[in-house]
Amino acid sequence: MALHGFPHAPPTLPATVPSAVPQPRSPPHRPPSAIFAAGKREKRRGGGCAGSPPARRGRQGTEESPSVSNEPAAEECHGRPYSSACSHDGQCPMPPRRKETPSPSLGKDNADTVIIGGGCVGVSLAYHLAKAGLKDVVLLEKSELTAGSTWHAAGLTTYFHPGINLKKIHSYSIKLYEKLEEETGQAVGFHQPGSIRIASTPTRVDEFKYQMTRAGWHPTEQYLITPEKVQELFPLLNMDTVLAGLYNPGDGHIDPYSLTMALAAGARKYGAQINYPVQVTNLNSRSDGTWEVETPLGIIRAKRVVNTAGFWARDIGKMIGLQHPLIPVHHQYVVTSTIPEVKALKTELPVIRDLEGSYYLRQERDGLLFGPYESEKKMKLQDSWVTNGVPPGFGKELFESDLDRIMEHIEAAMEMVPVLKTADIVNTVAGPITYSPDILPMVGPHQGVKNYWVAIGFGYGIIHAGGIGKYLSDWILDGEPPFDLIEVDPNRYGKWTTTEYTAAKARESYGFNNIVGYPKEERFAGRPTERTSGLYDLLKSKCSMGFHAGWEQPHWFYKPGDDTEYKPSFRRTNWFDPVGREYKQVMGNVGVIDLSPFGKFKVKGTDSVKLLDHLFANVVPKVSSTNISHMLTPRGKVYAELTVSQLHPGEFMLVTGSGSELHDLRWIEENVMRGGYKVEIENVTDEMGVLGVAGPYARQVLQKLTDEDLSDGSFKFLQSKHLKLSDIPVTAIRISYTGELGWELYHRKEDSIALYNAIMEAGQKEGIDNFGTYALNALRLEKGFRAWGAEMNCDTNPLEAGLEYFVKLNKPADFTGKQALKQIKEKGLKRRLVYLTLETDNVDPEGNESVWHNGKVIGNTTSGSFSYSAQKSLAFAYVPIELSKVGQKLEVELLGKNYPATIIQEPLVLTEPTRMRLQKKGESPKI
Questions:
Q1: Which residues form the FAD dependent oxidoreductase domain (predicted)?
Q2: The dihedral sign for the CA sequence 81, 82, 84, 86
Q3: Is the bond leading into 328 cis (omega within 30 degrees of zero)?
Q4: What region does 775 belong to: left with phi over 0, alpha with psi -120 to 50, or beta?
Q5: 568 Cβ contact partners less than 8 Å away, ≥ 6 residues apart
Q6: Exposed, middle or buried by CB within 10 Å (0-12, 13-18, 19+), for 98?
Q7: Dist CA 369 CA 48 (whole Å)
């Protein structure tokens, strides 16, 4: 897609009504440096309307209690404290605040759902649960609604998100906010002038093109626009460095307080109770899975509790022995007085995000509001709250501002928007925002604690609130998520997520807020964690490591002469040739890969077979056998894919990907509790190492280390055996994600180095060498192997994903999702996963790119790679069933260009077991 203006006329931007804008004093003309002096002198003034509160009274800072402003509390108007920039003469665009009457009572002894925390997210959940018809929804807030982070948020709203399904969350939020005032009678102060992300470097332009193809198969309006169009939309910009803009009509900002009040009004309208100030003092889990929620006013018994407590969420988690990986960060924004050039405009300016300057900027009445993200070295954590808890009474307080910390961003903003040079700062807001290690929230049920849900860690809570409230409400009511959001699953973190790791990653995530987002991006703060493979120390200097759920796993290995720097790119980069070398190693000789990050569970007990027959769509494997099995949701979606081995009668080992370890374990445990199965489940992920050995000489190498017959007749494909390799006990499974002859060798973690060294020494004659996960991905794609999280997840059913072989609809057991899948099959599929080759140049598909046909987007890729055998790009993609035949010509959009693509018969390269079968039949297999 070339750089362009609009394919059609952009939506008309909302006009600002001149009479609705108050007339504060005009700032004197002053040199650029005067803005800092003004900021230091005026930083405790009241805030502007709809987005800029002043600091409220609070205690002076101590080690436990950070420095906060202690001026007398301002009176309040239109949901915000009075502003020196507002005349309150009836011209204010916001209606007077509807006074909230505290209700410090429980009201009832029993509830279906108790929500802890009255910020925007918690109130949204109450609204959605009640609107959906759930009775007995009770929200408890320790202070008052919006206390914490909601009340002082800048209120930005945007359709944009690089995450595929988080776009749905943003879109739903905006659509909800647009109609909320009509539904509830409460004004929300919603402005939708659009937003523009600024590209000032060629790499940024590439990033925008990358994001355009990822957004193309979504209904969101998003345009890559020229500098001329950028200037037309935001005429106050200095265009010297602007190369392009990413424009989202409908973006804007909303008053967080008024939004929360509207959601609260809706929640009450539909029957939810909102009680405050009522502090939760303890949580007690009962044997039947229900909860006792203790407060100073008594106890409420609930079927489930949902922690939406913002920066108090850690304190709530500690009540039940959980250490939620959250930490508050200091975020500042400043508000200017009236700027004549802004006041003179006839339409409201779009929100600007200057990514190189690392700040956002929007119109605030007749001035501007500016919020930066400092570097990881300069940003500030409130880490004392992690160790000591949030100070008692802290609710609507702010930190002391520190303009020196954001000086470079202010200077960058003045260069980009020169009218700032003569503007006064009338307010500076510095408040706490809660960060998770990766900046994404934690949403859903928590593994290991029955009926305990969370919606916490929101760095962008205002735009997430509406969509997450709906998402979580649907999940609670329907028993499965409405769509896949594995990236916000709270179970992506485990015991390895220490306080030190959380602090390091939150600092990095905040500082990296506006850096270029590359595919295959690695971030290095807080690494390695305490969760390392037994081979980490041996391999770390020989390869480029990737981060996988706390583990370090080799992505690709170095050879003399290789460029070993970390060089992410939207195009082929320095690892392209080394990965090709590793690919050839496995296809032509034998390779070794560290697979220790796999999630590994042992299941045994009198009901183990019965449980697995209920959980999985495939049959339960026989003793000493293995199969690939899928857990489905009640609606027939693919919740997980695991390798299942029956090692002994009634004793199983289940293996899943590193990123879905606790995600899958929670689902299994939930089914055990619901069905009352008599089984024992042990998570042995951290105690067990795994080595993969693959390639035509894999058998020859391993045979040197054991007396066990490894021949094809004695050790068949998908068979498992307990044996010793060089006197080291292993559970060997003849399976390989490479599709070549291979084994996965499960062993005690402490034996990893000895086993690895023995294999490498035994394979010297065969030319054995290492390979990493990038080569593994290329190999599995050539074999047509699907990947969970890409080709299949909670958005897909196994039939459209081409997994029919693994789904036994005729087996006697009524496995979860069976009836839904039968109905899907009866109605017929609307789309199907297809296998594409692409004619590209120096770029390969990564997944989630738009697929085109006859000038329209008709589908999306799921994953891709370069095929080192075919010397062209490969990709999986979902397309309409009528366009899914072999030979169909399509196009795939990569970095703004549509490349020819053809659907081919899969796989491109036959698997080793298939080649062996064909050879026995006298046929000539393709390789």
A1: 112-475
A2: positive
A3: no
A4: alpha
A5: 518, 519, 520, 521, 522
A6: middle
A7: 9
Considering only 12-26, 745-759, 818-832, which range has the smallest mean pLDDT?
12-26
- Rounded to the nearest integer, the mean pLDDT of the chain is 90
Which amino acid makes up residue 103? S
User: CA–CA separation, 889 vs 882, rounded Å?
Assistant: 12
What are the pLDDT digits (tens) for 551-584? 999 999 999 999 999 999 999 999 999 999 999 9
Pairing assessment for the beta strands 367-372 and 359-364 based on DSSP bridges? antiparallel
Q: DSSP label at 349? A: P
Structure tokens at 191: 């402005």
pLDDT number for residue 668 = 99
Mean pLDDT for 310-323 is 97
Of 384, 468, 459, nearest in space to 127 by CA: 468
Per-residue confidence (pLDDT) for residue 100, from 0 to 100: 62
For residue 641, give the nearest of 760, 451, 807 by alpha carbon: 807
Contact between 189 and 169 under an 8 Å Cβ cutoff? The reply is no
Asked if residue 264 belongs to a domain, the reply is: yes
* Same domain as 382, residue 281: no
Amino acid at 29: H
How far, in Å, CA of 472 to CA of 455, rounded?
8
- pLDDT, one tens digit per residue, over 877-917 is 999 999 999 999 999 999 999 999 999 999 999 999 999 99
Query: CA neighbours within 13 Å on the CB side: how many for 614?
Result: 15
Q: Count of alpha carbons within 13 Å of 399, Cβ hemisphere only?
A: 22
Residue with tokens 């005032």: 181
pLDDT at 103: 64
Residue 159: closest CA among 150, 146, 168: 168
**Alpha helices, H only, 515-591:** 536-539, 576-588
Burial class (CB in 10 A: 0-12, 13-18, 19+), 130: buried
Indicate whether 412 and 450 sit together in one domain: no
Band (pLDDT 50/70/90 cuts) for residue 19 is very low
156 burial type by CB count under 10 A (0-12 exposed, 13-18 middle, 19+ buried): buried
Q: Given this model, what pLDDT does residue 565 score?
A: 97
The count of domains in the chain is: 3
Query: Considering the domain boundaries, does residue 137 fall inside one?
Result: yes
3-state SS class at 791: coil
Last residue of a domain, which of 379, 407, 432? 432
Instruction: Bin 560: left if φ > 0, else alpha if -120 < ψ < 50, else beta.
Output: beta
- According to the model, what pLDDT value does residue 392 have? 87
Task: Tell me what the mean pLDDT of segment 349-368 comes to.
Answer: 98
Q: Which pLDDT score, from 0 to 100, does residue 547 have?
A: 98
Interatomic CA distance for residues 567 and 552, integer angstroms: 18
The amino acid occupying position 590 is V
Intra-chain end-to-end CA distance of the chain, in Å: 36
Distance CA 598, CA 116 (A): 35
Find out whether 459 and 434 touch, Cβ atoms under 8 Å.
yes
**729: domain range?**
547-558+591-597+686-785
E strands, 108-187, are: 110-116, 137-140, 156-157
Helices (H), 684-751: 698-703
Q: Could you tell me where the beta strands, DSSP code E, fall in 685-785?
A: 688-694, 720-725, 728-733, 742-748, 769-770
Q: What is the CATH number of the domain that holds 771?
A: 3.30.1360.120
If you ran DSSP here, which 8-state letter would residue 391 be given? P
**pLDDT tens across 387-430, in order?**
888 998 898 999 999 999 999 999 999 999 999 999 999 999 99
User: Is the pLDDT reported for residue 232 higher than 90?
Assistant: yes
Q: Residue 25 sits in a domain of what CATH number?
A: 3.30.9.10
- CATH assignment at residue 267: 3.50.50.60
Residue 906: both structure tokens together: 């899969």
Helix (H) or strand (E) holding 913: helix 912-920
Query: Rounded distance, CA 267 to CA 129, Å?
Result: 8
Report the 3 state secondary structure along 87-117: CCCCCCCCCCCCCCCCCCCCCCCEEEEEEEC
